[in-house]
Amino acid sequence: MADTALIPAERARPDLGAILYWGFVWGAGILVLIYLIGPILLALLMSFNSGTTLAFPPKGLSLRWYAALLDPVQSEPIHTAAKNSFEIALCVVVMVTLITAPAAWALARAPRKMVNAVEPILLAPLVLPSLVYALAALLALSLLGLGPSFIAVLIGHSAVFAPLMFRTVLGLAQRMNPALEEASATLGASRARTFLRVSLPGIAPGILAGAFFVFMQSLDNVSVTLFLGEPGRTMLPLRLFAMLEESLDGRVAAVSGLLILAAALLMFTLRRFTGRAAR
Amino acid sequence: MTETGLWISDVNHSYEGKQVLHGVNFNVPAGKVVALLGPSGCGKSTILRAIAGLIVPDQGRITLDGRDLTRVAVRDRKLGMVFQNFALFSHMTVAENIAYGLAGLPKAERVARVERLLDLVRLRPFAARFPPRLSGGQQQRVAVARALATDPAALLMDEPFGALDRALRSELQAELVRMQEDVGITTVMVTHDQEEAQAVAEQLVVMNEGRVEQVGSPEEIYDNPASLFVNGFIGHANRIPATVTGPSRLKARDETELGFNRALNFRPGSEIVVTCRPEDLALSTRPEQGAFAARFDRAVMMGPLLNIEATLPEGSQFKAQVPRDGTARPDRGQTIWLRPNPARLQVFPAPQA
């Protein structure tokens, strides 16, 4: 009797272990997903609120905040801030691409020792709090006689976010078969043609992915912008802060909604593009 | 009169202080296929890269049909190269890959040339495909077509079959030979596979440790190897350490005496190594004059032949290949006698320890 009782118990034990294991994996996984996606969904939901302030749960569904946001008279300051932010972000992406892509491409061909020496310096802004960098840049720029300005923000953002693109491009450049460029040369192509027709398409997915990260980070940045930006020139994140301080304006949620939509669309097209290139 | 063909003269080269090419000399007659053959690290790829212009050798001269290429930049050499893993541009179609080197031509001419090459490598239906969607054999043919598109003065190939399945290789080797005969282009191929070299090339250049060991037709190299290394690298060679005892006599370590029908170029008392191909051994189950006693290990049937493995008393392995003539096979562990054909023996000085 004792024997027969033991057998099912023994058989049940691994099942219990498996239940606990999968329970933990799924439970923790779902919790993390909720934690990551929940607030975004919440913001999206609140942006369709028909009430007069930012509140949850929404009283009813409407597009009134989007309408208010798009209204050129009522939301003129937001539009200006958004325009300023997008301008900066685009300029930063161009500048970072021009500096980083050639740097990563060249470094992928440099001796290993040199890469090991240079890489930590180039990646430093990634680990350094951007606040620290912003303050240092402000001091350094004022030494050069350059006060807070558009150029200062551009330089600041470029320095802080360049590592994002550097990483994505270097990874691809290092994995590229060196025989591809050699093949191009044996076929009579000049260095410029080899770079444009062979190397650049090879690292293009990295440039695109990096450009996406840099653009989003620049758009979103507060500390560097706050330190280096002209006081009169307001940027989107700073404007949103101010609006939240003044009143619980529903337009903030509408801005979030638009940004979420833009990011999702960008990411989707990017995945399709880089996915095809990788194959 | 200028010399035609490709001439490699006294090429030396070092990488990071280590000399990888030692006075390499050989030539490729115009329109012929030569295979550079050797174990990995023997310098065969380095010499190919020097010919292509991907490296500039420290010393030496490389000329092609009388034109000195040594200092000419890669892109001005007008050579076609097929890379080890084909190095196809995966973001371009097959046709675009082939057209890559034709940028200077007018469009109509370029299109016509690409179509002719697609026909040559029988890939016309695949013109619009991207290389990653092709099989290994098709990729290889694209690489060959791309290299030939510019109408190069010579074709260089680095392990062109290395990335392919063994089953595919012999078929593609035959294909390459046919194509080479059609085009009649001076060709240098690098390989570590002796069967591949023999199947494709009219001349072999056997290399070892940065030196050319021997240049010759596959037959010459197989029948009259210039060194112990070549002897063992091309085909199998059983090695027998021995001492010279007379003008045409020698004694092996195990006291077996061998007589030669020719004079040996060694003084009596010299330490030498005698080598013998597996197919030049006769098998007997009774003691015989001039035969080595060995322990029979195993035999593997191969078509009409029997591949025998045996061990000499001092421990070295012996391989023999004899006709499968219906006589009973020896038992494992039984003593057998292997008698070499003296006319086919090769004699080399004993390697310095």
Descriptive tags:
heterodimer, A: 279 residues, mainly alpha, MetI-like fold, 2 domains, 11 helices, disordered N terminus, B: 353 residues, alpha+beta, Rossmann fold, OB fold (Dihydrolipoamide Acetyltransferase, E2P), six-stranded mixed beta sheet, five-stranded antiparallel beta sheet, 8 helices, 23% helix
Structure notes:
The complex is a heterodimer of chains A (279) and B (353). Chain A has 279 residues and is an all-alpha fold. Chain A folds into two domains: 18-66, no CATH class; 76-278, Orthogonal Bundle (MetI-like fold). Chain A has helices spanning 2-47, 64-70, 76-107, 112-127, 130-143, 150-175, 178-186, 191-220, 223-228, 236-246, 250-278. The longest helix of chain A has 46 residues, at 2-47. The N and C termini of chain A lie far apart (62 Å). Chain B folds into two domains: 5-231, Rossmann fold, CATH 3.40.50; 236-349, Beta Barrel (OB fold (Dihydrolipoamide Acetyltransferase, E2P)). Chain B has eight helices and 20 strands. Chain B has helices at 44-52, 94-99, 107-120, 136-149, 166-183, 194-200, 218-223, 228-233; strands at 6-15, 18-28, 33-37, 59-64, 67-68, 80-82, 154-158, 186-191, 203-208, 211-216, 238-246, 249-252, 257-259, 271-276, 281-284, 292-302, 305-311, 317-323, 335-340, 346-349. A six-stranded mixed sheet of chain B has the order 6-7-8-3-9-10, with helices on both faces. A five-stranded antiparallel sheet of chain B has the order 13-12-11-14-20. A five-stranded antiparallel sheet of chain B has the order 15-19-16-17-18, with no helix packed on it. In chain B, a hairpin with a 2-residue loop joins strand 16 (292-302) and strand 17 (305-311). In chain B, helix 3 crosses helix 4 (136-149). The interface between A and B is medium-sized, with 19 and 26 residues. Chain B: InterPro entries: AAA+_ATPase, ABC_SmlMolc_Importer, ABC_transporter-like_ATP-bd, ABC_transporter-like_CS, Mo/tungstate-bd_C_term_dom, P-loop_NTPase, Transp-assoc_OB_typ2.
